[in-house]
Task: inverse folding
């Protein structure tokens, strides 16, 4: 288990240091992760069901960026686990990312995948 955690941490470091990803996108992701782990929420957590919606929406935005906006080859160049787990994770992320409106995706992210 500890080995997997180390690989995940290394994966996050490698992706965050990739020069192909715009600095603005890295900053937005960092702020979103801080919002998820922070006790400060847009909707207070003590409100049943609605309290976790803001965190879930932010996590959906992050997953959408990683597995829909970013080029799969870019992410795979850092992914420490096998292709089978990558495909399963990508499939799950795409199911969750349906809550991300395309106009919001276009407004937030600056990364444009290569044409070829």
Result:
């Amino acid at each position: 288990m500890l080995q997997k955690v180390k690989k995940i941490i290394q994966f996050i470091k490698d992706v965050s240091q990739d020069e192909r990803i715009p600095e603005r996108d890295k900053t937005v992701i960092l702020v979103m992760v801080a919002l998820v782990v922070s006790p400060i929420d847009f909707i207070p957590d003590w409100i049943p069901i609605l309290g976790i919606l803001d965190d879930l929406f932010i996590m959906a935005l992050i997953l959408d960026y990683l597995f829909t906006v970013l080029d799969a080859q870019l992410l795979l160049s850092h992914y420490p686990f096998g292709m089978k787990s990558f495909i399963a994770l990508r499939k799950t992320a795409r199911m969750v990312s349906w809550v991300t409106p395309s106009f919001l995706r276009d407004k937030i992210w600056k990364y444009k995948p290569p044409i070829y």
DSSP finds six helices and no strands in the chain.
